[in-house]
Specification:
It catalyses: a 5'-end NAD(+)-phospho-ribonucleoside in mRNA + H2O = a 5'-end phospho-adenosine-phospho-ribonucleoside in mRNA + beta-nicotinamide D-ribonucleotide + 2 H(+). About 25% of the residues lie in helices and about 25% in strands. With about 450 residues, the chain is an alpha+beta fold. Strands 3, 4, 5, 6, 7, 8 and 9 form a seven-stranded mixed beta sheet that branches. Strands 13, 14, 15, 16, 17 and 18 form a six-stranded mixed beta sheet that branches. Strands 10-11-12 form a three-stranded antiparallel beta sheet, with no helix packed on it. The chain is globular and about 70 Å long. The relative contact order is 0.16. Mean pLDDT is about 80; it is low at about 1-50, about 395-410 and about 445-450.
Length: about 450
């Protein structure tokens, strides 16, 4: 386990730094369209957003901060008993604790928008339903509100509420019913971009949705025992599963796939290694990343992945932070991104074309320009509009890459993932020389660990 200081300060470059006056660009460099260096540095100092995120997107889930005691009415076992009683009695009478249910369809949570809010503002909320509302929507559908399909998410004792997730992918009729109430099932990635990163309440809802999706996808992919092939059944209100085969009875717990993600730094020449994958939107560059192999430490994984993908050798590895990432493919329902700075000891790039499309060294100034040139707020606003349109029954196709263009319509020559991704914070911390674990990113600082 890592021994680190409190959550690192994560500086965000969210404000548009693009000049509307063409004379503030270097006219002699038409291809790159970069800023005058002095103006760029001044604008970054003056306009870099001063706020700091306390946590990454999908972290700091507000409804599972602690595990209740077995005697607590909010515990998975006791809450499940109460829920089962209510379902068997077919009553909608108030109960203590109360129950809120979040439906999912094909990995998408139910969401709605706040009526009367400003157009383009990040204004979505999760579509929590009461037990009675859930029954009503499912009344004539092929989906049954069974206790075996409900997954315990957590509780808020101050509100006397226990929260559950429920998969309704088996019936398309539910979509039209909920659509009449201006609810819709929205991709988690879309909600991620549309979220106001400065709003801790909405960030909390995003974390809840991420946790719920990870659990539901895990249930979908673990329907059979990997040891004997027997059917698995949910246990402890869906927090684990067990093989139904009596001779086996193997216990199965939610899957987490650890991934190292690293910003490789050339300290001597003040530059960072960024890469592109073929699946990236045009002009987007990011950090290297890769899955940890069995029997491998995190530091070893950083060095191996960097060398395999780019031929660069790494010496010191410094921990930055970690982020749950429940927006990957359903076969990997929840990745845990573990972020590092990796200090290069060799510098000649040899790209593995099976893994990457390209990898290049970029100077600090070039990366500053990418942070300044990209309009993350614009992407946030346009995606919020998209969510609002979807909830009103109007879905408008839009290219995500176009959201990162400058207001003049010019293409950003290079951009990096937005503040919803740990890659952004690794890169931004390096660019702005933010202190990480009590030391500047410019100072080599080892991290104590028990691995």
């Amino acid at each position: 386990m890592f021994i680190t200081s409190s959550s690192p300060s994560l500086s965000l470059n969210l404000i548009s730094l693009i000049s509307r006056s063409p004379q503030k660009f270097q006219s002699s460099n038409i291809n790159s369209r970069i800023f005058n260096s002095r103006i760029l540095n001044s604008r970054i100092l003056n306009f870099t957003m001063s706020m700091s995120l306390k946590t990454h997107a999908f972290a700091a889930n507000p409804i599972r901060s602690r595990t209740p005691k077995s005697t607590d009415p909010f515990s998975p076992t006791n809450a499940f008993k109460t829920l089962k009683t209510l379902l068997l009695s077919n009553t909608n009478e108030p109960s203590s604790p109360d129950f809120k249910i979040l439906p999912f369809r094909k990995g998408r949570p139910l969401a709605g928008t706040i009526v009367g809010s400003d157009v383009g503002s990040p204004n979505w909320h999760l579509g929590w339903l009461s037990l009675g509302e859930c029954r009503e929507y499912l009344e004539s559908s092929e989906v049954r509100l069974s206790e075996d399909l409900l997954v315990y998410l957590g509780f808020k004792d101050e509100e006397d509420v226990v929260y559950w997730a429920f998969d309704v992918s088996g019936d398309d009729g539910v979509v039209s019913k909920l659509g009449g109430k201006q609810f819709c099932f929205v991709e988690l990635r879309t909600l991620m971009v549309a979220t106001d990163w400065a709003d801790s309440s909405v960030m909390g809802e995003l974390a809840v949705a991420g946790h719920a999706r990870a659990l539901l996808e895990w249930h979908n992919t673990s329907r059979f025992c990997g040891f004997c092939g027997g059917k698995t059944v949910p246990m402890e209100a869906g927090r684990r599963k067990e093989c139904s085969n009596e001779p086996c009875k193997k216990r199965i717990y939610p899957r987490v796939d650890p991934v190292v993600i690293m910003l490789v730094v050339d300290k001597e020449n003040d530059r960072a290694l960024l890469s592109r994958q073929s699946r990236f939107v045009p002009r987007m560059w990011s950090c290297l990343a890769g899955f940890i192999e069995p029997g491998e430490s995190l530091e070893e994984a950083v060095r191996r992945e960097t060398w395999e993908e780019t031929g660069i050798e790494v010496g010191e590895v410094v921990y930055h932070s970690s982020q749950p990432w429940p927006v990957g493919p359903s076969s990997m329902p929840c990745q845990l991104m573990v972020g590092f700075f990796a200090y290069a000891t060799s510098f000649e790039i040899n790209v593995d074309k099976d893994e990457l499309e390209d990898a290049k060294w970029h100077s600090r100034e070039e990366v500053k320009e990418a942070l300044a040139f990209t309009e993350y707020r614009k992407a946030q606003r346009t995606t919020a509009v998209k969510v609002e349109q979807m909830c009103k029954g109007v879905e408008k196709g839009q290219s995500l890459s176009s959201d990162f263009n400058v207001e003049s319509g010019e293409l950003a020559p290079m951009f990096i993932p937005g503040p919803f991704a740990i890659a952004h914070h690794l890169i931004s911390s390096w660019v702005n020389q933010v202190e990480v674990n009590g030391a500047s990113t410019e100072t080599k600082q080892g991290v104590s660990s028990n691995l």
